[in-house]
Amino acid sequence: MTHQPFFYDVTLRDGNQALKKPWNQSEKETIFSQLVDLGVQGIEIGFPASSEMDFDSCQKLAKMAPKHVVVSVLARATENDIVKAAEAVRYAHKPRIHTFIAMNPLGLEHVLKKDIQDVTQIAVKAIKRAKELLPNGQVEFSVEHFGDCRENLSDVINAIEQVVEAGADVVNLPNTVERFRPLEFVQMVQKVYERIGDKAKISVHCHNDLGMATATTVESFFHGATQLETTLNGLGERAGNTDMYQVAVALYNSGVNVPLNMHLFDKTAQMVSEMSHVPIWEKTPIIGSDVLAHRSGIHQDGSNKTKGLKKGQYIAFDPALVGRDDGEYLGFTSQSGKSALKEIYERAGYPITLKETEILMPFAKKMAEQKGELSVEDCDKLYRTHLCNVEGPYQYASFDRIQQGRYVLSYFENGQKKETIGYGYGPVEACIQGLCSLGVAISILEYQQYMLKREDKEASEAVATIKLAQGDKQVVCHAIDRSTTQVSIRAIFNGLNQLQR
Ligand code: KIV
Ligand code: ZN
């Protein structure tokens, strides 16, 4: 893809105007700086004619703008608004006045009570005046409610031609209220592009009333629109404006060169949510806390099998691309499968075998049916109960060192007390030797011990995982204990009981 999108952010205007508590100057400056860091090429900073406060704020932000960023202010197509806009934005290195008027049949008849020719003249006059007041700046003209201009589209396109002749550098086509199919809107954008060509930059500005603003914006880019108007976290009137992160990632996935620092998305989203008091829904694409989770067995299996590859079977983007420090996550519910359980234990720090997963599975399913997704604590409980406390004929009692290489082992076998002295370089060898001396012939094939550190527990515990053999039978067994010696002996007795099954 050769052409690049021009990201034009309207958070400080369309987003801010829809907040329950609009931002103060210092908050606006924080958002402005973040937008600059994100690398957006254009920022709409406010509506100077709306209040003295907005006017002052726009002047201050315009002065903060770096050389390469286009900074615009909104103005109705009236003398007063245009004069105020020019005054407010003139200190920016790349100033732009953004003026607009509605051209949809409903707006013409009931709101403006004018015909399209009158409205076109108003627009032309406003553009010329803006050019006059800001000779080195740009003018953007918006056909407000462009998405509602299906019945009078050819008149509107004629009007757009006149607006461009009057000097508009950018023609913005808003879907002010999203009512119809994205494709219809995109075809309308294409028609404007076919008439205007490169005489002006074509822009789209979509609202998200039906949840399709991202789709409409992304597809418009492939049909002539190069300027994409978006907001951070999709803030904006009603259901919001087009979300910047979604558009950027969708374009990136389609091979478009996205000129944004996308790795700042996650951090930005959290910051904007805090500052706007608008929480991020856990299922919000790209930035939601739950959007990397897999809970169904099929999805968990696909995710596991494609882990570490460039493209995952059930993930649309690399979380690191947008600066997320989490990754795909498996949650165990009644819908989940064996491979997920194994993976969950591995991630929680207790590697288990598939065979052990089978042992745990019925208990895990039952628990999940009752309470929903299992927590790490639930998994820990299941592990301790069903893998570290194996019931059977052997019951461990004690294991104490008498002197270097000499230990006394006590246990019960079918309720009968047994005691023996075991010899060995270490406790594990001594225990096996002691058991053998009483006719319990077992051997250790693999041995592993590691620390289990849990934030919620004061002291760390040791986990022993041992592969034991008796004749041609083999089992993997575990134990958890604070003592590194006791943990091994307990694991051996868990294994002994498993071997009797
Ligand atoms: O949604 C809209 O139509 C607008 C215009 C002022 C561009 O925000
Ligand atoms: Zn808008």
Could you characterize the architecture of this molecule?
- By secondary structure, the protein is α/β, with parallel strands linked by helices.
- The protein is 41% helix and 21% strand.
- The protein is built from 17 helices and 16 strands.
- The strands form four sheets. It has an eight-stranded parallel barrel, surrounded by eight helices.
- Strand 15 and strand 16 form a beta hairpin.
- Helix 6 packs parallel to helix 7, helix 12 crosses helix 13 and helix 16 packs parallel to helix 17.
- The two termini are 64 Å apart.
- The relative contact order is 0.07.
- Bound molecules: 3-methyl-2-oxobutanoic acid and zinc ion.
- Zinc ion binds next to loops.
CATH topology of the largest domain: TIM Barrel
> Average pLDDT, to the nearest integer?
96
Mind telling me the C-alpha Rg?
A: 34 Å
Give the N-terminus to C-terminus distance in angstroms.
64 Å
Strand content: 15-25%
Which CATH architecture of the largest domain would you pick? Alpha-Beta Barrel
Look at the helices and sheets and give the structural class: alpha/beta
- Number of helix segments? 17
* CATH class descriptor name of the largest domain: Alpha Beta
Basic shape: elongated
